[in-house]
Amino acid sequence: MENQIQNAVKLGRISEEVRSKCKGFSQWDPNSSRRDHDTILQILIDGRNPNSRDVEGCVLPTLVYLAREKRPQHHHKFKAGAMNALIRVSSNISNGQVILNVDCDMYSNNSIAIRDVLCFFMDEEEGQEVAFVQFPQNFENITKNDLYSNSLRVIYEVEFHGLDGYGGTLYVGSGCFHRRETLCGRKFIKGSKIDMKWEFSGQREESRIHELEENSRSLASCTFEENTQWGKEMGLKYGCPVEDVITGLSIQCRGWKSVYCNPSRKAFLGVAPTTLTQTLVQHKRWTEGNFQILLSKYSPAWYAHGKISFGLQLGYCCYCFWCSNSLATLFYSIVPSLYLLKGISLFPQVWSPWLIPFAYVIVSKYTRSFVEFLGCGGTILGWWNDQRIWLYKRTSSYLFAFIDTILNSLGYSDTAFVITSKVDDEDVSERYKKEVMEFGDSSPMFTVLATLAILNLYCFLGFLNKAISGEGIAEAYEKMPLQILLCGVLVLLNLPLYQALYLRKDKGKMPSSVAFKSMAFAVSACICFQYLY
């Protein structure tokens, strides 16, 4: 397979030898492209054929290849459109009652997970209420200290278990088993039962297979969904970058519950982003989609009210408000540092009793975060990396997602579905394994991050210079303890960024254009603030 793909890439076409072996290629003419082609469908293995066995004699399941029709004049609806086409075609060929959705960069790591899922669906007491069973997304290429905090350790090990206690967790788009009927719009009716038995109707003839292929092709055509409820009340919903979350919420609002299953042996493993750009772009799409849900008619704040438990409603809102958190984080990353440079105190002094509430919140919050992270199997350095990425996401990904969502709501821009690239060259992979952060991209997000990092460094060094030459460090600390602490922590968190700006020589360093722009923005902001105040 690998050799055939490489040969096709070199030739720029499919060789005649391969075309003669695979009838699907006969539909691929010179005018076809990835965005303009007919439906290509082929039943490669018929699971009802007793002769369909592997080399060890085990029965093989039905295997179908599908490439839905795509035309430039018809929007293909990205992943949601592909899923809906697969749901329709599979209902005509196999019509299995349970559907597993796995992203293309993930694979099964625990075959017993299927048995676990069937136990939930077939439970005599509560199984009839379960619409889908969600497994956590785990990755095989996470570094020891989780450089980019891609494992979302606390979310999957703590928060989702909490949501599970309130009637179910979110559908996160991969590693999820669904009842087919719930994806097709069925409402939950108390007392109704779904029979999980599947009857074998016998072997299909070759002519019957060909007829089945022909009949199923129309289900994956561009025009099939016109004037239907697909993408609205049936299948995955359209119009949102996180089609999975909004689909799961709508299913739960129809009375169904979900289950979160997190076995000790991970059910599915995938590939996590290996550069900072990939991580930030991925989180921008997630947070932008969640914020759009909050502002849409399917908002958990009002649409879900009374339809799901209050705890689950709050859980959804927590993720939907990620985007707007950028404003508070941006404020605390800029204003206290600028006032520190000016020598103006914003918080209570050391000996003031009003310092106690601030100290309590800071100590309790970060102690809980630290203990929680280590309790989930993380490392001390991993927790520190998690705090850094927390800062970077909220001052770049979430900020851009917030702005884009507001502009989209006002009609000034359209939502774009950005696929997270998982392909890197050898140098990038080696730096990732050594846990060296990757900044070799001229992304606007890096301009924001570098500007904030330089601004905090300039303010901190400026404060130290004034304190040493003036009233002294001790006196300044008594006057502005929390601002010194905040600015100092921000500088420490940004150490990898300073290295990328000034010390590194490899291709992962910050581009010169970004460095110059960031320095100009940061210094200009500091000078303007000093003159204005």
TrEMBL record:
One of its GO terms (molecular function) is cellulose synthase (UDP-forming) activity. It is a multi-pass membrane protein. InterPro entries: Cellulose_synth, Nucleotide-diphossugar_trans. The keyword Transmembrane helix applies. One of its GO terms (cellular component) is membrane. The chain crosses the membrane at residues 443-463, 483-502, 514-532. GO terms for biological process: cell wall organization; cellulose biosynthetic process. It is found in: Endomembrane system. It comes from the Eukaryota. Its main location: membrane. Keywords: Cell wall biogenesis/degradation, Glycosyltransferase, Membrane, Transferase, Transmembrane, Transmembrane helix. SUPFAM superfamilies: Nucleotide-diphospho-sugar transferases. The keyword Membrane applies. Mn(2+) binds at K79, D103. Belongs to the glycosyltransferase 2 family. Plant cellulose synthase-like E subfamily. Thought to be a Golgi-localized beta-glycan synthase that polymerize the backbones of noncellulosic polysaccharides (hemicelluloses) of plant cell wall. This is Cellulose synthase-like protein E1. It comes from Pyrus ussuriensis x Pyrus communis.
